[in-house]
Specification:
Strand content: 35-45%
Structural class: mainly beta
Shape: globular
Number of domains: 1
Distance between the termini: 26 Å
Number of strands: 30
Strand order of the largest sheet: 11-12-13-14-30-24-23-18-21
CATH architecture: Distorted Sandwich
CATH topology: Beta-galactosidase, Chain A, domain 5
Largest sheet: 9 strands, antiparallel
Helix content: under 10%
């Protein structure tokens, strides 16, 4: 199903596309290739929308939450808003703390109008053409993102890209999840999270990784055993103090790399990915944002689990690298599965 979502800031119309399979359904807009709604049954079969979002394209444009957006070419942060590739320095927008780069540039791809290539009952594929020099990145890139609801309760997000110059491909989805339902922000921190990650990336005061890969053992960052998200979030621990809560990259280790569970509704979501990292963000900058259906998304009213390369990996050659050679096919898949 396709319906008008609204008129964008540039006067163009944005549309909302529905996909469904079994008990799951999702709504995606071509404005930012954004996941707007995701309906999931609870243990009694009752449906709830479990992602935070807005009711119009304008709200997505003016917001800095990045709800549900497809982020690229490089998700997360780049220190000093620059990197070296092929002996040449590439400079990006210094759009984060007047020094660093966040999510690639001022519009983050979230405000672009993507082209719908294919839409079926359970899948949608969208395309974006990113010209040479776009956001400061080299090469003319053709990017596709495909959302598919599979027959095992999974929302599968596949990213594909090809470029005529060596470039960076490190795309992610920036959905905030609340398995109790997007309209119950007060329950988000009581949901439990487990991640088998053995280490995380400590950041400096500007959220740029220090270069250390620190063991989670003996710290509030240890999610190897399931625990409520809010249990340790107020501990006096430097990594939490600097970021105002959880907003860190963890090793994407194991299958699944993360499991989120709401004890009230019984909904459980697992995250599997071929990416080396997963950014866990506890909604520290949500302060009464008005979202879908007039719901106030209060402080820490949803969490993001963004699969990706490590932040600032372009400046850490010892880490897995997001560089892709000219003509080579970039392909990455992340699955959010509901069990």
């Amino acid at each position: 199903m396709k319906k008008l979502f609204g008129v964008r800031f540039d006067g163009k119309e944005a549309y909302l596309y529905t996909i469904s399979r079994g008990d799951l359904s999702a709504e995606i807009t071509d404005h930012g290739a954004t996941l707007v709604k995701l309906f999931v049954p609870d243990s009694r079969g009752q449906l709830a929308d479990v992602v935070l979002g807005f009711d119009s394209p304008d709200e997505y444009t003016t917001s800095t939450t990045y709800f549900g957006a497809t982020i690229g070419r490089n998700s997360n942060r780049v220190g000093n808003a620059s990197f070296i590739l092929g002996g040449k320095t590439y400079r990006l927008n210094a759009n984060d703390n007047e020094k660093n780069n966040l999510h690639s540039g001022w519009d983050y791809y979230k405000d672009r109008l993507w082209q719908v290539v294919k839409h079926t009952t359970n899948s949608i594929c969208l395309r974006l053409d990113s010209p040479d020099g776009d956001q400061g990145f080299p090469g003319n890139a053709v990017i596709h993102v495909t959302y598919t609801l599979d027959d095992n309760g999974g929302l599968v997000i596949a990213y594909d890209g090809v470029c005529d110059k060596d470039t960076v491909f490190n795309l992610t989805n920036h959905s905030y999840f609340n398995l109790a339902g997007h309209d119950k922000p007060e329950l988000a921190m009581s949901q439990t999270l487990s991640m088998p990650a053995r280490f995380f990336n400590p950041d400096d005061a500007l959220s740029i990784p220090t270069g250390e890969l620190r063991s989670v053992a003996g710290t509030p960052m240890d999610f190897r055993e399931s625990k409520p998200i809010g249990r340790d979030i107020l501990e006096d621990y430097e990594a939490l103090n600097l970021q105002g809560g959880y907003d860190h990259n963890f090793e994407a280790f194991g299958i699944p790399a993360a499991t989120l569970c709401d004890p009230v509704s019984g909904r459980t979501m697992t995250v599997t990915t071929d990416c080396p990292g997963i950014q866990f963000y506890s909604g520290n900058f949500l302060h009464g944002v008005t979202g879908k259906d007039g719901v106030s998304y209060t402080y820490r009213g949803g969490v993001a689990l963004e699969t990706q390369f490590y932040p600032d990996s372009v400046n850490h050659p010892e880490w897995p690298q997001p560089f892709v050679k000219a003509g080579e096919h970039y392909h990455s898949v992340t699955t959010y599965r509901f069990v």
